[in-house]
Amino acid sequence: MGQLVVAALQLPTLGMNATRLEYYLKQAKQRDADIVLLGEYVLNHFFKEFATMSPNMVKEQTRKHTELLKSLAQKYDIIFIAPIIITKKDGYHKTIVKISAKTTKYYEQQILLPYGHWNEKKFFANKVAPLKDTMTFSLKGFKIMVMAGFELHFDPFWQKVTEKKVDLVLLPTASTFGSHNRWREIIKTKAFLHGCYILRANRLGEYSDDEVKWKFYGDTMLVNPEGEVEMMLEDKESMLVEVIDKSEILEHRKSWGFEKELKLREDLV
User: Fold this and answer.
1) How many Cα atoms within 13 Å fall on the side-chain side of residue 216?
2) Cα separation of 50 and 47, whole Å?
3) Which one, out of 103, 160, 206, 216, has a CA that is 20 to 30 A from the CA of 268?
4) HEC string for 134-194
5) Mean per-residue pLDDT of the chain
6) Burial of 148 from C-beta contacts in 10 A (0-12 / 13-18 / 19+)
7) pLDDT per residue over 202-224, tens digit each?
8) Is this prediction's pTM over 0.90?
């Protein structure tokens, strides 16, 4: 039965120097990694820092990092999944890019945080529209879905995980404020209920405004279909590389039969 080697980088915002990223890529390739996930606000600064940056600086940061990932994808024959900020005429757009040796594709985040202290919905120009499918693709016999961190909280995305028989959800996040346990429990529960692996990459770093200090705490993890954490990084810069196994996914789905019970009832309608 098929296997896939997945990697997640736990980093703060990267500078323009390629050395750091290539250091980890060499290690990932030595361990035959097929895909590498980065957290939110790693290729770009945290959105609250944009106030002190010119639009051209943000645009250049995106351009340089996109070109870097393209060159590394070709050099190491690896796929990157990474949140990145795109500048358009109407403003900044929060997206996730998939970069392989041959293609570059974007998914624009559909639901953004709308809260007073963290209002991405107001800051970014992403349109509020009826929900559509997120980015999905196949690799070595695995169906993979990309889901933006905040979108984890909304059931329609998980319904698609079940409908499409997704084997692996890639979840880049920028979690802070000591929310470790809440995120761990949600991710473990979703993996179990939907019979899939979840790879979560959370950023590191700090941001301070007048009132509060934001500490991004890492906790990058791989959770298996049984809802168990297979590997977790702590709060230091690091990389996770693990093998996922299709047979574990199929065994979980067969044992628990959640989809089978739903299908029986759908057939009666």
Assistant:
1) 24
2) 5
3) 160
4) CCEEEECCEEEEECCHHHHHCHHHHHHHHHCCCCEEEEEECCCCCCHHHHHHHHHHHHHHH
5) 94
6) buried
7) 999 988 887 788 888 989 999 99
8) yes
